[in-house]
Amino acid sequence: MTLKLFDTHTHFDVPDFDHDREQLAYAAKAAGIEHLILIGFLQKRFADLLGTHDFINHLENAPQSHLAPGLHPFYIEQHQIEHLQDLEQLLKNQNCIAIAEIGLDTFLKQHKQAEMFQKQKDFFAAQLELAQQFDKPVLLHIRKSHAEVLHILKQQQFKQGGIAHAFGGGVEEAKAFIKLGFKLGITGQITNPNARKLHQVVQYVGPEHLVLETDCPDMTPLCCQSSTEQRTRNTPANLPYVLQGLAKSLHMNKEVLAEQLWKNTHQALHLAI
Ligand SMILES: [Zn+2]
Fold it and tell me: 44, 67, 212, 268: least surrounded by Cβ within 10 Å?
């Protein structure tokens, strides 16, 4: 029996997949991926995001595609106020499952600088407001800014929940996001036995608060990496390896875990099972 899986975070619309997207979509479906989410990051990519979404949903024997447009904090220099209006139009005119990926990212030095960080916070808050207005969950991108993201979510009294994507925080941060109604997104990093903090977090919070994602074309599971020097492209068809890694970390049966994660995903995305 093939397990039913939901890839909650993909960049399957990017040009890395232009030459073989159709074949990879069939491979994903054959591996049990019933649904995938296309995640937004830049306004200039919105048209391609929609195009890929329609393309996948016209294929037979492919996963069902869902749209989650948004403005990513890492690309903050490129975002303009008008892009928020374009996002609002998409939310009005398309059937969007969430707003993504949004949050804060202070990995780069120039993003820690007061003015840029303030712009990230303003765009994050504005998109949370849109999520409240349209009653959508959000998929969060958080890098070196867990406390600030939590602060803004509380300040905005955000109740729609969603997923803290590629969760990289510790146990205390995990507890705080769960308390605010979020699930934690688990990537191929879980296949790395040296990712100690991540294993500690999933073992502490347990399977009820987790969902799966590939974050393709990044975060390739260890088993699928063909070289240690060069990045191997990740694809939605690799999601079963993420499940396998998580089942191993939790000492759980894969089938039982997959069923729990399926439920969690539907809950996080406000979907009926
Ligand atoms: Zn992403």
Answer: 44
Q: How far is the CA of 39 from the centre of ligand 1 (A)?
A: 6
Per-residue pLDDT of the chain (273 residues; tens, 9 = 90+): 679 999 999 999 999 999 999 999 999 999 999 999 999 999 999 999 999 999 999 999 999 999 999 999 999 999 999 999 999 999 999 999 999 999 999 999 999 999 999 999 999 999 999 999 999 999 999 999 999 999 999 999 999 999 999 999 999 999 999 999 999 999 999 999 999 999 999 999 999 999 999 999 988 888 788 776 677 899 999 999 999 999 999 999 999 999 999 999 999 999 998
pTM of the predicted protein model: 0.96
CA of 208 to the centre of ligand 1 (A): 23
CB 189 within 8 A of CB 164: no
Straight-line distance from the first to the last Cα atom of the chain, in angstroms, rounded to the nearest whole number: 19
Give 93 Cα–ligand 1 centroid separation in angstroms.
Answer: 23
**Where do we find the tokens 């296949």?**
191
CA of 165 to the centre of ligand 1 (A): 8
